[in-house]
Amino acid sequence: MGIGDCFENINLPPCIWFEGGDKRNAYASIISGFLFFVGWWIIIDAASVYPGTVVAGYHMCGVVGTLSLIMINSVSNAQMRGDAYEGGCLGPRGAKVWLFVGFVMGFASVIASCGILFANFAGKKNAHYWPGVGLFLQNVFIFIASLIFKFGRSEDIWT
């Protein structure tokens, strides 16, 4: 009798919400939403624990990252292929440009938050590092959430 044989007769009740076919879209949405939430929660924590260290302009990185998430995930894969998008002035090419601009905004928010971290928080004596690290983590989590939601789905939810 091996170790694997010990667990043969254990039956766990199925979770009603996740039973059935392919749940890749549900998992991608849950993980993406959780990362987005954690990103904003981190910066809210940093701003509340160390008031005055997170300047109002620093929040623009998170706002731009959030707009990037919306832009990236508003373009479906069918629109990228040209299957479901024939209207507008640019068609599939416009959808690709919109997606590219969304990715550029996401990268820019991560790079800007990294620049703020190193310019204003790292290497300063008697400075608190957590607001800068929190700002950077916020934007990294938002960007990862947008990637998981865009590329983690097996098919488009909206079509």
Question: Characteristics of this structure?
Answer:
transmembrane; 159 residues; transmembrane helix; membrane; 5 helices; mainly alpha; UPF0220
Describe the biggest sheet?
none
What fraction of residues sit in β-strands? under 5%
Helix content: 55-70%
Could you give the order of the helices and strands?
HHHHH
Tally of separate domains: 1
* Number of helices, where a helix is a run of at least 4 consecutive DSSP H or I residues: 5
Average pLDDT, rounded to a whole number, is 83
Alpha-carbon distance between the termini?
51 Å
Compute the CA-based radius of gyration. Answer: 21 Å
Broad structural category: mainly alpha
Mass-distribution shape? flat
Explain this structure to me?
This protein has one domain (23-151). 62% of the residues lie in helices and 0% in strands. It is built from five helices and no strands. The protein has helices at residues 24-49, 59-73, 77-81, 92-121, 130-151. It is a multi-pass membrane protein. This is Transmembrane protein 50A. It comes from Zophobas morio. Keywords: Membrane, Transmembrane, Transmembrane helix.
Brief sketch in words of this structure:
With 159 residues, this protein is an all-alpha fold. The protein has helices at residues 24-49, 59-73, 77-81, 92-121, 130-151.
Layout: helices, strands, pairs:
Blueprint: H1 24-49, H2 59-73, H3 77-81, H4 92-121, H5 130-151
Helix pairs in contact: 1-5, 2-4, 2-5, 4-5
InterPro entries: UPF0220 (IPR007919)
Family: Belongs to the UPF0220 family.
Keywords: Membrane, Transmembrane, Transmembrane helix
